[in-house]
Amino acid sequence: MLVHSRRGRWGAWALFLVLFAPLFALPLLVIVTASFSTHWSGAFPSGPTTEHYAAAVRGESLRALTTSLVTAVTASALALLIGTWAALSAAALRKRGRRVMDALFVLPVAVPSVVVGLAVLVAFSQPPVLLNGTRWIVVLAHTVLVTAFAYQSVSAAVVRLDPVYEQAAASLGARPWYVLWRVRLPLLLPSLNAAAGLCFALSMGELSATMMLYPPDWTPLPVLIFTATDRGSLFTGSALAVVLMAATLVVLLAVSRVRTRATYR
User: Fold this and answer.
1) In degrees rounded to 5, what are phi and psi of residue 172?
2) Please, what is the angle between helix 135-160 and helix 95-110, to 10°?
3) 205-238 residue pLDDT tens
4) CA distance linking residue 213 with residue 210, whole number of Å
5) pLDDT of 144-172, one tens digit each?
6) Per-residue burial over 201-237, b = 16 or more CB atoms within 10 Å of its CB, e = otherwise
């Protein structure tokens, strides 16, 4: 830690706990507690049950979770591909060109996500590219929203790359594509995995743009959570939220292990 005295460290930890508990830990604890309850009319919940989780892992809820996972994985893969290509291309541009690329890729996160959803809806509701009413318009909107984070993460890593490795490979006769595949991308692998995890987490929780675009046969889990709570089923919605958090954390832990092994190598 940056604080070297014992009293200062204890103070820093106390401040962290004071801020963390009410802002982060307590709301999550309330959601988890509500997911195991049937009533909450007083200071504490009552009627402990696991029926909400039994319903959350079957039927419509299970389909919604699968929809969210497929959407997030597809959008993250596309965002990582596009963001990496754009970051590598921007690194070869002059300063003004890089600024233009940065502005273009940051634009989707500079405006509310509902605006992005409306833009996608208007753009792809008419031929020749008609995606409205299909699952692909949801995947496209998620890709647009998370590509900026992939681009920024990879761009920051590209700037820190030591050009000595590429120059050494080129001096030994390696072609540009070989240098890219065997030198640059392996060096960028930790940042690529971090960007993939961030894109996945953001896509799993996306709601605003999704509400404007999703067809009846492609309902992600956040939409189902919103629908449940809007009907007054707060305990069912809490269980669905816990399932969403758990699924996201499992994937992020898997991605972090990949990143750790890549860093070690």
Assistant:
1) -90, 5
2) 140
3) 999 999 999 999 999 999 999 999 988 888 999 9
4) 5
5) 999 999 999 999 888 887 777 777 877 77
6) bbbbbbeebbbbbbeeebbbbbbbbebbbeeeeebbb
> Domains along the chain?
55-264 (1.10.3720.10)
Q: At a CB cut-off of 8 Å and minimum separation 6, what does 133 contact?
A: 215
Closest of 222, 265, 212, 215 to residue 247, by C-alpha:
222
> Which residues make Cβ contacts (< 8 Å) with residue 135, sequence separation at least 6?
67, 71, 215, 217, 218
- The pTM score is 0.86
